[in-house]
Every structure is written in structure tokens, then in C-alpha cells.
Design goal:
There is one protein chain. This protein is globular. About 10% of the residues have low confidence. α1 runs antiparallel to α2. A hairpin with a 2-residue loop joins β2 and β3. The chain is about 30% helix and about 25% strand. A three-stranded antiparallel sheet has the order 1-2-3, covered by helices on one side. It has a two-stranded antiparallel ribbon with strand order 4-5. The longest helix is centred in the middle third of the chain and has 19 residues. By secondary structure, it is an alpha+beta fold.
Length: about 120
């Protein structure tokens, strides 16, 4: 009997990202594969963009390896990036005066397009 996964079944993956020029591209491809395999193609483009931004920041500014965690639950995709730096992140707002549109707010995305903060 074949194993059947119901649509939108919960899942979680963690991908270790090395410090290197191909790392973000490999992470994007892995993310694409996971979301497509779980029948969530509508999330691929937004998820790849967010993951690319978060991972690039982690790799460039922390100067080391990173981890990307994907967690799908309650029709929400959560992506978390950890870097290998022991230093706490410093926001751009604390380094200089805040400018309109500066910074990034990450939120969960669902296939319906709804977001959570």
C-alpha cells in the first residue's frame, strides 16, 4: 500500500549551510524541492526570496556557517535562520538614524496569501 501524505501535513526540516559561494543557491534549491514535494508550490517564490535574504545576511555578516529551519504547521510556513556568530545582531536602527523602509520584518506565509507576524 503506498504511503499517502494528506495535503498540508505538518513537516519540519533543518538544513546546515556552509560558508561558501554556492551555499545560498543550494539552500534555495533544497527549499524549492521540499515545498514542491509537500504540494506547496504557491509558497516557493516568496520562501526562496526570504530565505536568500536571511541566509545571505547570516553568511556575510556572521562570516561563518548557518542553519535554515523550515516548519510547516497550522497552514503557516515558518523559516528561521541561525548563524555561527557568538555576537548578538545589531539592528541598522541602532547603528544610525532610522530611515523609512529600512529593515526587514519576517512573517509566516500560508497558501491563501494570509500572513502572520
Amino acid at each position: 500500500m503506498p504511503l499517502v501524505t494528506p495535503p498540508f501535513a505538518p513537516f519540519e526540516y533543518c538544513l546546515h549551510i556552509p560558508h561558501g559561494p554556492r551555499a545560498v543557491g543550494v539552500a534555495r534549491a533544497s527549499l524549492h524541492t521540499a515545498l514542491t514535494a509537500h504540494e506547496l508550490p504557491d509558497l516557493v517564490e516568496r520562501a526562496e526570496l526570504l530565505a536568500s535574504e536571511m541566509l545571505t545576511n547570516a553568511i556575510v555578516h556572521a562570516g561563518g556557517e548557518a542553519d535554515l529551519r523550515l516548519k510547516w504547521s497550522a497552514e503557516t510556513l515558518r523559516m528561521t535562520v541561525w548563524d555561527s556568530s557568538a555576537a548578538r545582531p545589531v539592528s541598522a536602527r541602532s547603528r544610525r538614524a532610522a530611515r523609512a523602509g529600512e529593515g526587514c520584518t519576517c512573517c509566516g506565509c500560508s497558501p491563501s496569501g494570509a500572513t502572520t507576524h
